[in-house]
């Protein structure tokens, strides 16, 4: 485990985006550009758009993101456990079961409270 | 490697920026983001000290990992509070929420 | 500081981190602030990778960029005042002063500047440059430590309890009140 | 490569840097060009599924069709309508392609050819996978369009819901191999993990389909509801990049299935002739890719609430149970911590296979019961109120035909 293994990833991040960016830049020179006010309107099935785009969203989205965040953190903790699994005893598995069950209880709570319904 | 104090300096800068954000931003969500910056500054310090002083021990990494848990819980509940307040008062400006102030 | 590849990379990631952070606290547009927050936290992930903590770098991206940032953006959309309010409040000058003073204090404590100038007894000197290498099985050891009753078993389980409490509490707060649907949108369509 | 550069008189550091830079460009270029072939292959397969011929004019078997399409799309006007957030708008398609290309960094093509064998390989896959949702949010937000924004939000809700079962499925190979490095996972598959963990593979495929945002999970761009979702305002090559990203992702799912569950480059003589390993990997990933296409061509679109329910109320609990059962059996079976040959791995794999079949049967029974209850509920509702629900026609419309 060294820092060096990241050199390739770093270089990839630094350079590889140039490839998808090239056609965009190329298109800037090649593609025609004849803007007019009607063409530049926001697309809304031919109707002129009304009001602000940033309409208020339902809280449902937030609840899904919330459950996701907490499960995400849990999974991240499972990774080192899975890595060391062969060296650990059955007791370690039991601990992880407790760890997982606690969060599943929270999921069940959310479920029972009907917060995980799309149309509440 | 670069000397340890450079990492600490970056963390100090990040913490100060976060501090400014907490003090000066009006929007409660922006304040929460600034708090995230401060938590990250603390995390940089934890990891840097672990790396430079006791890389053979796991404690530093373990603590940093628990900071992630706390950060996640804090953001989840904090944003939920903000959303709830927004519902009741139609505002996310932290100064408007002064019911408990005297 | 001699110019090695490592120090250059360090400099780059520090600039990303601090620059992104500065934009977070100064940008007017909250959505942009959230994007800059991601950039800044990505810089921190880079610093972790540079500190030979690849696992933490991975978590940083998964948890912060993949989850927390999305949660923040969702919350921004739920409270649509993206650019409506001025970004700073009346005490922003005081905020600048506090932040600058704090930074100056911390900087004098952590950098060897003062001890080089001859001031003794102020701050510690953190000039270690060549720490011992990180053991190759560091992540596996982390996994063992999490479930070892002698080490971090209790915090590990408590972390799960904390997550559970956070989830239940946050769902309780956000869940739309039954029946009384007070979410009449003032801007029209509601998805 | 590095040695060659040192021989012609470069310093070691510079030589490594140049070699790696070339590697980066080679990998990214091959990845992107490969997409051309994937698009052609998918169109051909889709055509066969729908009893058509597919592209057959440009070049032999229509192979050059995609190139022609690319040239056409690059010459299209790139419309920047009013109110877009320029920077974010332009960055989103690039990020969308990058989030897929970055996966290729840790794919072991042969025993020796791999971008970099990260020690946290699988966690890296998980981390990179989450970048895609950021790209979608950026695209939807910067478009200043209600359809785009709603589409982006639905898409992200779907993506994040399926990231959890996907990560839990990826944990199973980590448990079995005792390593997060993709190369180690391939090396330790003396018997493919498909045998040991078929349920995991199923979960992985379903979750990946949802991550792809393809039929039956294509509410991201449900034409009948949201125009084109978050891509609504994109035109010209920026739209093309989203398109490329989607097809590249579809093939990458095949690659991941091959690497994590089908033994990657493993096969007869692959250790001795690395090129052979590459061929095996390609064949295996086309198997995975074909399954993905097959599902896409066959199943109709699922409603948004059904998608989220399927994710949270079915796949997440199932994948947690699956992970724990596999881990438990792996622990109590003797000799699983020192597997070095096919013989060592065979017995535990078969036991796990039996357990998996039991689990799948159990899940099947549960699903049947649930299906019956659901049907009874619908019948009861129908009886109470004979008018058919509005909107149900659009919701169950089959997915768009071939592209």
Overview of this protein structure:
The complex is a heterotetramer of chains A (120), B (102), C (191) and D (403). Chain A is an all-alpha fold. Helix content of chain A is 60%, strand content 0%. Chain A has one domain: NADH:ubiquinone/plastoquinone oxidoreductase, chain 3 (Methane Monooxygenase Hydroxylase, Chain G, domain 1, Up-down Bundle). Chain A has helices spanning 5-15, 18-30, 59-83, 90-112. The longest helix of chain A has 25 residues, at 59-83. Chain B has 3 helices and no strands. Chain B is mostly helical. Chain B is 76% helix and 0% strand. In chain B, helix 1 (4-24) runs antiparallel to helix 2 and helix 2 (28-53) runs antiparallel to helix 3 (59-89). Chain B has one domain: Helix Hairpins (Orthogonal Bundle). Chain B has helices at residues 4-24, 28-53, 59-89. The model of chain B has no long low-confidence stretch (mean pLDDT 87). Helices cover 65% and strands 0% of the residues of chain C. Chain C has helices spanning 5-26, 30-50, 54-78, 92-110, 113-117, 138-147, 153-174. Helix content of chain D is 69%, strand content 0%. With 403 residues, chain D is mostly helical. Chain D has helices at 2-7, 12-49, 65-74, 86-101, 121-129, 131-142, 146-177, 182-187, 193-196, 198-212, 223-226, 236-261, 274-298, 304-332, 342-384, 392-395. Chain D folds into 2 domains: 1-75; 79-395, no CATH class. The chains are: A mainly alpha (120), B mainly alpha (102), C mainly alpha (191), D mainly alpha (403). At the B-C interface, helix 1, helix 2 and helix 3 of B face helix 1, helix 2, helix 3, helix 4 and helix 6 of C.
Q: Give the biggest beta sheet of chain B.
A: none
Number of helices of chain B: 3
Radius of gyration of chain D: 23 Å
Order of helices and strands of chain B: HHH
Order of helices and strands of chain D: HHHHHHHHHHHHHHHH
SSE class of chain B: mainly alpha
User: What is the strand tally of chain B?
Assistant: 0
Poorly predicted ranges of chain D: 391-403
List how many beta strands of chain D DSSP finds. Answer: 0
The percentage helix of chain D is 55-70%
Stretches of chain B where pLDDT falls below 50 for ≥5 residues?
A: none
């Amino acid at each position: 485990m060294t820092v060096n293994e990241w050199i390739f990833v770093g270089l990839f991040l630094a350079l590889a985006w140039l490839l998808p960016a090239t056609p965009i830049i190329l298109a800037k020179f090649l593609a025609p550009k004849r803007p007019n006010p009607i063409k530049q309107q926001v697309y809304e099935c031919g109707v002129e758009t009304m009001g602000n785009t940033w309409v208020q969203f339902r809280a449902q989205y937030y609840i899904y993101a919330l459950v996701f965040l907490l499960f995400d953190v849990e999974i991240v903790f499972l990774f080192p456990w899975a890595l060391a699994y062969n060296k650990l005893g059955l007791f370690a598995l039991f601990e992880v079961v407790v760890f997982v069950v606690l969060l599943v209880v929270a999921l069940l709570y959310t479920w029972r409270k009907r917060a995980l319904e799309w149309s509440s | 490697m670069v000397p340890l104090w450079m990492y600490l300096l970056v963390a100090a800068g990040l913490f100060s920026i976060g501090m400014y954000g907490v003090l000066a931003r009006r929007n409660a969500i922006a304040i929460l983001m600034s708090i995230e910056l401060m938590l990250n500054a603390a995390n940089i310090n934890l990891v840097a000290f672990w790396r430079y002083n006791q890389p053979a021990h796991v404690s530093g990494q373990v603590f940093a990992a628990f900071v992630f848990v706390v950060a996640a819980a804090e953001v989840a509940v904090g944003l939920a509070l903000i959303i709830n307040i927004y519902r009741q008062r139609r505002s996310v400006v932290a100064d408007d929420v002064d019911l408990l102030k005297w | 500081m001699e110019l090695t590849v490592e120090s250059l990379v360090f400099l780059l990631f520090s600039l990303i981190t601090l620059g992104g952070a500065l934009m977070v606290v100064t940008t007017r547009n909250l959505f942009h602030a959230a994007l800059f927050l991601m950039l800044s936290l990505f810089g921190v992930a880079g610093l972790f990778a540079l500190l030979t903590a690849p696992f933490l770098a991975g978590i940083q991206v998964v948890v912060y960029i993949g989850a927390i940032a999305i949660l923040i953006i969702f919350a921004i959309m739920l409270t649509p005042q993206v650019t409506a309010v001025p970004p700073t409040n009346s005490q922003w000058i005081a905020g600048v002063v506090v932040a600058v003073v704090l930074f100056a204090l911390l900087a004098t404590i952590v950098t060897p500047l003062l001890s080089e100038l001859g001031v003794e007894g102020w701050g510690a000197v953190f000039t270690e440059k060549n720490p011992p290498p990180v053991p190759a099985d560091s992540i596996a050891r982390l996994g063992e430590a999490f479930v070892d009753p002698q080490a971090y078993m209790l915090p590990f389980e408590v972390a799960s309890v904390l997550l559970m409490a956070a989830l239940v509490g946050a769902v309780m707060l956000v869940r739309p009140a039954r029946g009384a649907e007070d979410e009449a949108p003032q801007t029209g369509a509601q998805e | 490569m590095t040695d060659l550069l040192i021989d012609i008189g470069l310093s070691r550091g510079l030589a490594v840097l140049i070699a790696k830079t070339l590697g980066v460009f080679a990998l990214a270029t091959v990845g992107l060009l490969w997409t051309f072939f994937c698009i052609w292959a998918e169109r051909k397969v889709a055509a066969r599924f729908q009893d058509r011929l597919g592209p057959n004019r440009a070049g032999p078997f229509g192979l050059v069709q995609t190139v022609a399409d690319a040239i056409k799309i690059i010459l299209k006007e790139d419309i920047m309508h009013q109110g877009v957030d320029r920077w974010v708008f332009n960055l989103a398609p690039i990020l969308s392609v990058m989030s897929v290309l970055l996966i290729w960094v840790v794919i072991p093509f042969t025993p020796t050819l791999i971008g970099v064998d990260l020690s946290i390989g699988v966690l890296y896959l998980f981390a990179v996978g989450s970048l895609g949702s950021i790209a979608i949010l950026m695209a939807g937000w910067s478009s200043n369009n209600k359809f785009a924004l709603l589409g982006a939000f639905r898409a992200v809700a779907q993506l994040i819901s399926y990231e959890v079962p996907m990560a839990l499925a990826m944990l199973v190979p980590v448990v079995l191999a005792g390593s997060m490095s993709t190369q180690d996972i391939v090396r330790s598959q003396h018997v493919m993990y498909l045998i040991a963990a078929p349920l995991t593979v199923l979960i992985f495929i379903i979750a990946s389909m949802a991550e792809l945002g393809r039929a039956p999970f294509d509410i991201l761009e449900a034409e009948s509801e949201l125009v084109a979702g978050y891509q609504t305002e994109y035109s010209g090559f920026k739209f093309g990049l989203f398109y490329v990203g989607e097809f590249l992702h579809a093939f990458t799912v095949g690659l991941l299935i091959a690497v994590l569950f089908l033994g990657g480059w493993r096969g007869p003589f692959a250790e001795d002739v690395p090129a052979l390993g590459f061929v095996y990997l390609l064949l295996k990933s086309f198997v995975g890719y074909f399954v993905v296409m097959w599902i896409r061509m066959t199943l109709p679109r699922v409603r948004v609430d059904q998608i989220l329910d399927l994710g949270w109320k079915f796949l997440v609990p199932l994948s947690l149970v699956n992970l724990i059962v596999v881990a438990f059996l792996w622990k109590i079976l003797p000799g699983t911590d020192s597997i070095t040959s096919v013989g060592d791995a065979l017995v535990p794999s078969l036991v796990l296979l039996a357990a998996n079949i039991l689990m799948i049967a159990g899940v099947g029974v549960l699903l049947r019961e649930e299906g019956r209850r659901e049907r009874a509920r619908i019948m009861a509702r129908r009886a109470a109120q004979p008018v058919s629900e509005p909107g149900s026609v659009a919701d169950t419309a089959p997915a768009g035909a071939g592209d």
